[in-house]
Amino acid sequence: MMEKIFKWLGNIPTDKALHFIAGLIIVAVLATFFPKAADHVWLGAVILGFGKEIYDLFADGKFDFVDFGATILGGLTIQILIWIAL
Question: In this predicted structure, what is the pLDDT of residue 11?
Fold first, then answer.
């Protein structure tokens, strides 16, 4: 079973994994510096992820919805853990 999971994880493109990690970090940092807003810090991943894709749109001509989704998913992962902890 673990072998299948590791094989599946190995198929995730590096770029998407980095967007997921960025979402994790964004929400963790925001929750640390703004503990009173900890219930809503996942929105930081949405805003910053959207901003990054808008930047890519103007720089490269492409808005990647999958990158945007990976950033949000990473942010929501930490947000769910925060909700559980609170």
Answer: 86
